Amino acid sequence: MIYLYISRQVLIGFLIAIAVILPLFSFFDLLDQLDDVGRGTYRITDAFLYTTMLLPRRFIQIAPFVALLGTVTALGKLAIHSELIAMRVAGLSPWRISLAPLSVGILLLLGVAILEQFIAPQLQQKAITYRAIALEQSAELGRNLGIWTRNEKNILRIGQIINNNKAATIEILQLDQEGFLAAHVLAQTAEIVDNETWELSNVIVRTFADNQITVAHHNTLNWSSFVSPEDIATLTKPPESLSPLELFRHVEFLRSTGQEADSYALALWRKIGSALMTIAMLLLSIPFVFGSIRSGLSNKLVFASLIGIAVYLLDQIIANTGLILQLNPALIALAPGFTIIMVANVWLRRTH
Fold it and tell me: Could you give the angle at the alpha carbon of 42 between the alpha carbons of 120 and 141, nearest 5°?
């Protein structure tokens, strides 16, 4: 019964933390969107809709903060009313007391996993597309740069994605066995017939052979593509907006075609690292409360908030620095969580 009681208090603490943090993050999103109101057909209602569609993504991002502040709130209240002292006198160690918050934390992680795979990516991608259409922006990685991808013998550039099955301004650089340019194909548009065939329209083909350039014009020309429509769609989306399964498949695609995959691999491992960080924050909150049992709850919450902000900033710095230095993505993403778990473990043992 005592574990059920603690779990119920921790669950209430989680709900309080969500009710405070999630609206705050959403408010910052809304302020950022209000700067674009008036551009194209983007209106205030569009800004509110965009912010609302990002709520599942923001919930996933604040999960470690919810675990930290929610547990501090719950156990802090128990400490203030001397209930934790009574539990210690009854023979419950901090490790045994921590089992109740951990069970609630696992439920939180299950909810995050469902959102991460089935809800948040789809809504975030729809929000990005909706906003781009309202602002009259095209789906491209950079202004006038287009989308670039390659395999061993082809380099593909797509200037603009018109819809799921049509693209504009297609360039294909075909390489020979030695890696030299053998042909350059320029098409005004391309219809994506299936996973392997594209129908190019208004095509100019320049062939380079024997120190000569041969130019040929075609109204239509079929091209055997090495990228599927799903791969093209993935290339136009920010890595964080992809589900873990989409990221895994895209990392495999990039690596199989000899392309740089570190940014997508890091995004994948950071999703795993976020779950690890949630457990780490929850474990850290337990000795934090036991170690300051005489201080007020407000002081604990302020200190916990500062710890959460510091850990978040440090995690961002480590991720960006590691990507620049080309460190192992798994190490970059998992190291902060493992470090905090070890610190929490040592701290919790000292509270016995």
Answer: 60
- Per-residue model confidence as pLDDT tens digits over 17-40: 999 999 999 999 999 999 999 988
How far is 262 from 292, CA to CA, in rounded Å? 42
Domain final residue, candidates 180, 212, 228? 228
Element (H, E) at 80: helix 55-80
Task: Answer yes or no: do 213 and 177 share one domain.
Answer: yes
Tell me how far the alpha carbon of residue 114 is from its chain's centroid.
Answer: 14
Same domain, 29 and 131: yes
Look at the chain and report how many structural domains it folds into.
2
Q: Judge whether 256 lies within some domain.
A: no
Taking only the tens place, the pLDDT of each residue in 105-147 is 999 999 999 999 999 999 998 998 888 778 865 444 444 567 8
pTM over 0.85: no
How far apart, in whole angstroms, are the C-alpha atoms of residue 234 and residue 254? 11
Mention every residue, 6+ apart, whose C-beta is less than 8 A from residue 243.
116, 117, 118, 120, 121
